[in-house]
Amino acid sequence: MINRMDEKELLALEEKYCSYGDTVHYIDPPKIFERCEGSWLYDAQDRPYLDLQMWYSAVNFGYRNAEIEAVHNEQLNRMPQLACQYLNKEKILLATEIATETEKRFGMKGRVHFNVGGAQAIEDSMKLIRNFRGGKSLMFAFMGGYHGRTLGCSEITSSYRYRRRYGHFGSRANFIPYPYCYRCFYGLKRETCGYECVNQFEKLFETEYYGVLDPKAGETEFAAFYVEPIQATGGYIAPPPEYFSKLDKILKRYNILLVDDEIQMGFYRTGKLWAMEHFGVKPDVITFAKSLTNGLNPLSGLWAKEEMITPEIFPPGSTHSTFSSNPLGTAAGLATMQYIKRHDLETSIKEKGEYLLNRIKELQARYTVIGDVDGVGLALRIEMTQTDGFTPDKALADKIVDEAMKGDLEVNGKKYGLVLDIGGHYKNAFTLAPALTISYEEMDLFIELFELLLKRCRV
């Protein structure tokens, strides 16, 4: 156990020797945790913190999930290390599992390619697309979209602050408004807009002078559209039901590939293996990471349809990472896929998501500072506003996070902390990604804790 003096010493060392570039110092002082279990983190004083963001959805199936951990540990004892130029059965079986499950859902044959992190999977997808599209490097992406912070990924991530200090690596994406109906880019209402956001995108192809299409050659300058089916860092925003099917018709008409970024929403965060399943669209490429190994190993990958990724088109050495398809990661990934098959997640996540969303809506009815709530499965959002129910209130969201991390919220004589994450276009939305194994008692406790925070933090 770390006593209080030790904790201060550790923070002093961290301040002196650790780069702040790989951490987020939003809380002062930063929190040090000692252990984890299920939906819970524990600090140096063994105080419990209910986690509603689960390592940005990397630990979908609960901390220290015994079924997944056992397979990972068995691999650790048998063969934890192997250069990826050689094969191990776990890699082959995991790729097979992901490819066959994806084929069941979208009716397309494809192959799986591994790497070590979400950004690396996106980078690999860019190589794949540029190769398949004869070197075309321009992409469409969404306002509010997040695809990583490497030099290449920052070109298709909409936030300029991730590019500002480094210049451009390639060609910045053309950013298109996401269908954020609560704050419509065009100032329209969801019920009567007629999908104006899709109509505006389609207008880009009306004439060559909009810089997108050469009508004489019948060719666009853009190779692909990178999308998140549910915008993640952008605030867990769900599009209206027909949006992607309408968008996909335009992309197909002009031979533009659809890249489905499932890095945060994949592996049943929304109640489906891939969140895009909710919208009836077949992607050309799927990128995935995070909860593939339930956070036990930094393993990521992509699935691409067969004609894009055959060995003749994408040969050995097209991209490489020393630790890609490592035995520990692929064993944990295979255990995750087997865990999914053993449990009826589609039913349980739908039921839990509806329950928790309804409980949050009860809070919304009582507190005017909750402007918008929504969700798909267990990807839920709470947008904090001023009392008019619309004006973003980032300061209130920040204050709630700070108070939640103090660990002094008392319910039934016991003190708790609450781990929350903020996202959204205005950094005022709580993006809730509880463990998919969360109990109904824990969801009820969250509501109690969050209401205590609302009472404490409201001006």
Structure write-up:
The chain has 13 helices and 18 strands. The chain has 2 domains: 31-64 and 345-457, Aspartate Aminotransferase, domain 1; 68-342, 3-Layer(aba) Sandwich (Aspartate Aminotransferase, domain 2). The chain is α/β, with parallel strands linked by helices. It has helices at 4-17, 54-57, 66-78, 89-106, 118-132, 151-154, 196-203, 243-253, 306-309, 327-342, 345-366, 394-404, 440-457; strands at residues 33-37, 40-43, 48-51, 110-115, 138-142, 174-176, 213-214, 219-220, 222-227, 257-261, 285-288, 300-305, 370-376, 379-384, 409-411, 414-419, 422-423, 429-432. Helix 3 (66-78) packs antiparallel against helix 10, helix 11 (345-366) runs parallel beside helix 13 (440-457) and helix 12 (394-404) packs across helix 13 (440-457). The model has no long low-confidence stretch (mean pLDDT 96). The strands form 4 sheets. It has a 7-stranded mixed beta sheet with strand order 4-12-11-10-9-5-6, with helices on both faces. A 5-stranded mixed beta sheet has the order 1-2-3-16-15, covered by helices on one side. It has a 4-stranded antiparallel beta sheet with strand order 13-14-18-17.
Number of strands: 18
User: With helices defined by DSSP (H or I, 4 residues minimum), what is the helix count?
Assistant: 13
What integer value in Å does the Rg equal? 22 Å
What is the CATH C level class of the largest domain, in words? Alpha Beta
By CATH, the topology of the largest domain is Aspartate Aminotransferase, domain 2
